[in-house]
Amino acid sequence: xxxxxxxxxxxxxxxxALVWRGGSIVGASLPEPSDARMRERLSRRFPDxxxxxxxxxxxxxxxxxxxxxxxxxxxxxxxxxxxxxxxPFERKVYAAALAIPRGEVRTYGELAAELGQPGASRxxxxxxxxxxxxxxxxxxxxxxxxxxxxxxxxxxxTATKFRIxxxxxxxxxxxxxxFETLPLAVKPA
Length: 189
What we know:
Layout lengths: L3 E8 L2 E8 L2 E6 L5 H11 L4 E2 L4 H14 L18 H11 L7 E2 H7 L6 H9 L12 E2 L13 H11 L3 E2 L6 E2 L9
Parallel strand pairs: 1-4, 5-6
Antiparallel strand pairs: 1-2, 2-3, 7-8
Helix pairs in contact: 4-5
């Protein structure tokens, strides 16, 4: 047995899921059109995972994720995640994303520069598109140059990205896809 398990739970944006092994989170899923569709996607991503009641440390993580998506200012960066299945560059990108505070955003170019690879904005975007633990690894906080939305590979696409940013205190400019965050504004790369 792989030791992989998952559970589906309610949040303010819909039903989400966490996947874990032992006490570490290895995957997450944002809302799908139905629980059946979510379970189907989870079974493709984690074929050995079984649906199971969460142990206490995962129950705590679920509570924090739900509270965060309800608008409460909680720090998800301290949750136990296991990114060993990701390659070294992806792990660096995810660590940089985890360091972005709630309510703030960066551009793909800014994140690449933080990693010491200023020309790697597309590679950063590709790594974020493979993020196995959305919400906890906050890929939604990274935007395209000029504050444009960029992509978002999770169910719901950029509409989900904008919704989560709004919950976290970012607000969308009325005349474009630009976001202004409180207290900092997005700086173009």
